[in-house]
Amino acid sequence: MWREYFGESCHVYGVDIEAACMAYGDEKTKVFIGDQADRAFWAKVRKAVPTIDILIDDGGHLPEQQRITLEEMLPHICSGGVYLCEDIHGADNEFAAYVQGLANGLNSATPAEMPKDTAGLAFTVTGLQGTIHSIHLYPFVAVIEKRERNLDLLIALSGPSSRQTQPSPQALSNPALIFRYGNGTVLASYGDSIDSLLDFDPNPKTALIETTKTKGF
Ligand SMILES: C[S@@+](CC[C@H](N)C(=O)[O-])C[C@H]1O[C@@H](n2cnc3c(N)ncnc32)[C@H](O)[C@@H]1O
Asked: Which domain holds residue 121?
């Protein structure tokens, strides 16, 4: 099913506690037998599978199993990759609460020095903020997206509202002013307002500007 969905060239790795699932293995599908609540088991999987783009947890559905799977495997998912966990049922679901705790961590705000000549607020990033792009909760499903590039700083720019539709020549000539947010890359001039930056994204999701460390910072 997954090969039909993702295409013939995808590598499929399956994990199950039932040895009978080995029957689903073939030359293009590797099956690992083990307990998803066993951290040592995941260490073996990580050794055998160098990169994972998408991980879907549809296993035992116990919060403890889901949490250990996430903790052991999220760091192993490649940049730009996606983690999903299905069947998070119940208003007081412990795993959903755990994911909500992670989502709160995305708002951690430790002030940092603003890049030179730039107005606004800068924050150092935690390991979570540096590597996790977003955390989504749907009915019964959690989705975590990893960043394509790790961040060094989070910046909320401030300045006069100019509603520019083009980056200023100063921004274009200065590699220190390449800002990324949402799904796009934005070039901003010093003091550009968030309003003006949003003009570059047809579907802005956040007013926070994410920067990667570039020359001049
Ligand atoms: C809901 S089924 C889903 C199977 C498969 N994802 C599918 O859609 O056909 C859950 C699977 O998780 C496996 N499972 C249960 N507890 C597990 C555990 N602790 N570790 C790994 N797999 C487990 C079960 O054997 C079962 O095959």
From this structure: 108-131+149-217
Distance of CA 121 to the CA centre of its chain: 22
In this predicted structure, the answer to whether residue 10 has a pLDDT above a threshold of 80 is yes
Report whether residue 86 contacts ligand 1, using a CB cutoff of 6 Å: no
Q: Is residue 77 scored above 50 in pLDDT? A: yes
Q: In total, how many domains does the chain have?
A: 2
Tokens of 4: 């039909």
Atom of ligand 1 nearest to the CA of 65: 19
**Closest listed residue to residue 44, CA positions, set 6, 71, 72:** 72
Question: 19 and 50 share a domain?
Answer: yes
Nearest CA to ligand 1 atom 15: 60
Do both 18 and 61 map to the same domain? yes
Q: pTM, whole model, 2 decimals?
A: 0.77
Name which of 175, 172, 126 is nearest 150 in CA terms. 126
Ligand 1 center–CA 85 separation, angstroms: 12
Is any atom of ligand 1 closer than 6 Å to the C-beta of 59? yes
User: Which pair of structure tokens corresponds to residue 95?
Assistant: 């795993």
| C-alpha of residue 44 to centroid of ligand 1, in Å | 18
Same domain, 116 and 216: yes
In this structure, are strands 12-16 and 110-112 parallel, antiparallel, or unpaired? unpaired
